[in-house]
Amino acid sequence: MVTGSKSISTRAEFIDDAIEQLSAVEGVLSIFHTEGGLSFSLAHASSGRVMLLVDYELDNRPESGLELLNQFNETFKSYQLGWDVERFTWIPQELFLESETTQLGSKLLGINNAIATPVPELEAVLIHSPIPPVLERIAEALEAPILLPKPASDALSLGRHWKTRPGEHVYLHLEKEYVDILAFSNGKLQLHNRFVAKTKEDKLYFVLYAYEQLKFHPDEVPLKLTGGILENDDLWKSFDKYVRNVEWLENLNQIHSTAAIPQSQLRQYAPLIHLHSCV
């Protein structure tokens, strides 16, 4: 897609030929904010099939996002906006008081502008940093968009995915300087933490630490991966030494597989794909 703006450039783009048959009333447009850019993904609502994924680098102007949104000249069934947060924490729903949001953010996260996102399906409330200005402007221009920070969309989509699969599951999303670890037991969220981990040794340590804290046996509980890792590279092999079943997350393979979008690329955009799964 051509932006026509010198301050916005396309970093990656995937288009499925089947997009020609996608009706706007069946389409879900998800927009995910990362540092320095926005990713747009258009999917078929009922099947979750990704028809288009395009990643942009843009400047810091709040209006930049609207310039990109205007390229999608259809009105879709729904819009979902997501963004990553550096710090977050979960509070049990029954213990949360909205009036204490600022106090909780200051005490637990060290920020004075925390906001709360209730997630009734998980019986919990996420305390986190606010929506980025570029996404806030997009939200103002849309009618009732779904707003979900990454920890909420990750936990929701994976919880739904594993709710019908009995037993324990551990999910690991890898980035250059951190790892997100989520663990479920019979569909119920047991752990969701972000660990600063810049080395392979740190990443392995936190995975094994999570298994130990949860009392999950690494010979029995599989480790599902997404993000910046390649199958059978050194980090993968390190996990494989200690965890019996190290696999790609089947959520991305089974629900969103298309010939036009390589799975290796989809795994990099897992937060955006998870946002789709929250329809």
CA(first)-CA(last) distance: 25 Å
Profile the largest sheet: 6 strands, mixed
In terms of DSSP E residues, the strand content is 25-35%
Approximate shape? globular
Indicate how many domains the architecture comprises.
3
Low-confidence stretches: none
Helix content: 25-40%
By CATH, the topology of the largest domain is: Nucleotidyltransferase, domain 5
What name goes with the CATH superfamily of the largest domain? Answer: Protein of unknown function DUF3822, C-terminal domain
CATH architecture of the largest domain: 2-Layer Sandwich
Determine the structural class based on helices, strands and strand pairing. Answer: alpha/beta
Pfam family, one: DUF3822
InterPro entries: DUF3822
Protein name: DUF3822 family protein
Organism: Phaeocystidibacter luteus
Architecture overview:
It is a single chain. By secondary structure, the chain is an alpha/beta fold. The protein folds into 3 domains: about 10-85 and about 135-145, Alpha-Beta Plaits; about 90-130, no CATH class; about 155-275, Nucleotidyltransferase, domain 5, CATH 3.30.420.260. The chain is built from 9 helices and 14 strands. It has helices spanning about 65-70, 100-110, 135-140, 150-165, 200-215, 235-240, 250-255, 265-270, 270-275; strands at about 10-15, 25-35, 35-45, 50-60, 80-85, 90, 115-120, 125-130, 145-150, 170-175, 180-185, 190-195, 225, 245-250. The strands form 3 sheets. The chain has a 6-stranded mixed beta sheet with strand order 1-4-3-2-5-9, with helices on both faces. The protein has a 5-stranded mixed beta sheet with strand order 12-11-10-13-14, sandwiched between helices. Strands 6-8-7 form a 3-stranded antiparallel beta sheet, sandwiched between helices. Helix 4 (about 150-165) packs across helix 9 and helix 5 packs parallel to helix 6 (about 235-240). The protein is globular, with a radius of gyration of 19 Å. Pfam families: DUF3822.
